[in-house]
Write a structure and sequence with these properties.
The chain is mainly α and about 450 residues long. It has one domain. The protein contains 16 helices and no strands. The two termini are about 25 Å apart. About 55% of the residues are buried.
Length: about 450
């Protein structure tokens, strides 16, 4: 019990800054939605459509950058400074290129939104906003490179402070650009896009300055060098990062396709979905902070070849995420009418959203367990099989179930969300079992 208390403290000190940082990424979109929601249902629905696509790309990019953390954590466990610096250098090559590729993909693909059978006024609002916020992925991927490197070395607080600073800047810029203050013309949803871009450029600059100038990272300066790249390390990082990104794509993409299905029902259900999804995403991003802590602890103990401590640290994190998500579930269910009213004054949208918030409360524990499992498995560098299992749970189970419940069975938007609840629960159980089995095998292999 004493060991678990020690792990609880260490996990918390690692995780809470990451939780706040992760929520910070999501709160940029939440701030956009809340402030744009004051303009009406169509701009909010446009933000919903664009943000689902952007969030899918954002989480894929974050997943790609996650390759840095387990490799640096393991190298730190082995006290291998050269290896850590090399991972940083290769991350500064891979991640910004990934940001550019994602942006170009959206730039080419956004006209296809007109063929998704969405309300025309929603598509018109979504396209210019989506193009701008997707460009912000380039500086965001630079930020992620430095952030994941620092987290791999167990430095998590500084990114939290930087994210909070950028979020304050984003809210101020939203106020100026959305509503037309300080001499600017009102820009509506497009103004929210420009505010997000500027805030994310600030993120990248501040995180670069911290890593480059702080004395704690002086011994890793080789990580800023250019050239002499290792193909094998690039393959290794992409071999971890791309499957990790695909895991997020399959999950977020399932919620994204849910937006398309709900768009077939109407604008107000789509706006209600955006509100409930925003709320669920806040708790999810917080839980993904615990997932990041799982990657750090598991990767570090794997580098030290201390499997009993690895398992104890991970199971403590499972207990933490279950406790946290139960609290979130209670807040969602108790605040099912109050929370949607923070976004919009339309009573019909609030009523629909309140029913979805209840379902979001029901899947909180499953969502927390599955995201911590993915982080722990990433620390073991086990990413390919979890990616396949994630695809099966969401795309072969959750979405077909959601479609059947929503349309043939007549449950509407709630049916789509019950399908997502089924997928989340299945993937949570399977991923937890996989982590338990793999680490038991590692423990047995020691003797």
């Amino acid at each position: 019990m004493q060991d678990y208390k020690a792990h609880l403290k260490k996990n918390f000190l690692l995780a809470y800054p990451v939780m706040i940082s992760q929520m910070g990424h999501m709160l940029v979109n939440v701030a956009d939605s809340v402030m744009v929601g004051q303009l009406g249902a169509s701009p909010l629905a446009g933000a919903s459509l664009a943000n689902v696509i952007f969030h899918m790309l954002l989480t894929f990019g974050i997943g790609v950058s996650y390759a840095i953390t387990p490799l640096v954590a393991a190298a730190d466990g082995e006290e291998n400074i050269e290896r850590s610096a090399s991972v940083l250098k290769h991350g500064l090559l891979i991640n910004p290129i990934a940001g550019v590729v994602l942006f170009l993909g959206v730039l080419v693909g956004t006209p296809a939104l007109q063929y998704l059978n969405q309300p025309p006024e929603v598509v018109k609002q979504a396209i210019p906003y989506l193009n701008i916020v997707t460009f912000s992925l380039i500086p965001l991927m630079v930020f992620q490179t430095f952030r994941q490197f620092a987290e791999g070395l167990s430095f998590t607080k500084q990114a939290m402070v930087i994210v909070i600073t950028a979020n304050i800047a984003n809210i101020g810029l939203n106020y100026i650009l959305i509503y037309g203050k300080l001499g600017f013309e009102p820009m509506g949803l497009v103004g929210a896009g420009w505010a997000s871009l500027i805030a994310r450029i600030l993120l990248a600059l501040l995180m670069f300055a911290y890593i480059y100038f702080h004395k704690s990272f002086g011994k890793y300066k080789k990580g800023f060098s250019i050239g002499a790249y290792s193909r094998s390390l690039i393959r290794k990082m992409l071999g971890i990062g791309i499957p990790a990104g695909l895991q997020f794509i399959f999950e977020v993409g399932a919620f994204g396709f849910a937006v398309i299905m709900i768009g077939w029902i109407g604008t107000k259900p789509l706006a209600a979905h955006q509100i409930a999804l925003n709320l669920a995403a806040i708790s999810y991003m917080a839980a993904s902070g615990l997932s990041a802590a799982a990657t750090i602890r598991v990767g570090n103990q794997l580098g030290k070849k201390d499997i009993p401590t690895l398992r104890a640290a991970a199971f403590t994190l499972y207990g933490m995420v279950v406790t946290f998500m139960i609290v979130c579930a209670f807040i969602f269910i108790a605040g099912r009418h109050f929370l949607p009213a923070l976004y919009i004054a339309d009573q019909e949208v609030i009523t629909i959203a309140s029913s979805l918030v209840i379902i979001a409360g029901l899947f909180q524990v499953s969502d927390g367990v599955q995201v911590v499992s993915l982080g722990a498995l990433r620390g073991l560098e086990d990413v390919k099989t979890p990616t396949i299992l994630t695809f099966i749970a969401y795309w072969l189970l959750a979405l077909p179930a959601g479609y059947i419940l929503a349309f043939p069975m007549g449950m509407g938007v709630e049916g789509v969300w019950y399908g997502l609840l089924i997928g989340l629960t299945v993937v949570a159980v399977v991923m937890f079992m996989r982590f338990n089995i793999l680490t038991k095998q590692l423990n047995t292999d020691r003797f």
